[in-house]
Amino acid sequence: MSISRIEIITSMNKLSHLKKAxxxxxxxxxxxxxxxxxxxxxxxxxxxxxQNPEMELLPKQMIIIYTEDEMIDKVxxxxxxxxxxxxxxxxxxxxxxxxxxxxxxxxxxxxxxxx
Length: 115
Fold this sequence. Notes:
Blueprint: E1 3-10, H1 15-25, E2 31-37, E3 58-68, H2 72-83, E4 92-98
Antiparallel strand pairs: 1-3, 1-4, 2-3
Helix pairs in contact: 1-2
């Protein structure tokens, strides 16, 4: 059984609904980090007529989830559904393989360390 890291970067107001939806799926944990950053729009707000010539760093949040590969499609579909507004700033999702997970307290490794 393989494990992946799902990293989401999105605007600051999305966490509550996303957390509830992922809990219903059985996601057992997540890490949330407040950050500043911008994407390809360089921090331009949707209502601005022209793109910023320099990057403008905006408040964001990075949400990190580790899950078994069998759950990736369901988790990603839920994330996309909860974050989608159709406007600039909905975010990005990154998925990376994880070679191992170790729970320090018990020594459990792999999927057992996640639950």
